[in-house]
Amino acid sequence: MKLTLVGAGPGDPDLITVKGSKALQQADVVMYDALVHPDLLDYCRPDALKVYVGKRRGAYSCMQEDINPLIVHYARQYGHVVRLKGGDSFVFGRGFEEIEFARQHGIETQVVPGLSSSYAVPASANIPLTTRGVSESFWVVTGTTKAGQLSADLHLAAQSTATVVILMGMHKLIDIMAVFAACGKAETPVAIIQNGTLADQQQVVGCVRDINDRVSEAGIDNPAIIVIGEVAGLTLAGVQTATQATDSINQG
Prior knowledge:
Layout (H helix, E strand, L loop, with lengths): L1 E6 L10 H9 L2 E4 L16 E4 L2 E2 L2 E2 L3 H15 L1 E6 L9 H10 L3 E5 L4 H8 L13 E5 L9 H7 L4 E5 L5 H10 L6 E6 L7 E6 L3 H8 L5 E5 L5 H18 L1
Parallel strand pairs: 1-6, 1-7, 2-3, 2-6, 8-9
Antiparallel strand pairs: 4-5, 9-12, 10-11, 10-12
Helix pairs in contact: 2-3
């Protein structure tokens, strides 16, 4: 009996690790989440059992309390279970809970890290989380706690000069921007990237005071990553610089 926890990466199926794809090839059962690209299941053996246990806000195929015992059930019945989770399963993926539950029931465990959407998605939009002279560090914060409230860490992050990356925060976007505005950050750049690393990736760039309106106009929704900080304005500046350069060439 074995459980292998595999991070599927931020969305693009080509961004899974080699070790992760090898684990899928060896699996007897694959339990996969909503944000896992369906093409990744092509790595599985034809006889492998594929079980969807997706969780998205407002649409739960399985609650976490159901998933944990299912892992044990499938491991005992079939042997090797791969738990395939979007991004990296140890970054707001509740992966440690699943590993601990399996261990408590005598199941061997292994973790295969994946690219976290917290940094891979901004990178796909040409947004560096740190860059010399602009940002020396970054925070990664959940949009809401288990109790459905804004994290207290968000208030601390808003007082920092660091880049702040917020996951699972779109439904609290107005409240989040209010926190940053209250800290004197109304003009701080904000970038929001939907469906990061995928062909239908969309992004909108603004600042704390106007990003809500820009999101509404662009129709941006979940799943999306929120990036707050001076680095979020670099993409917009880059676009402007490229446009200015093109205009100069044309005029020349």
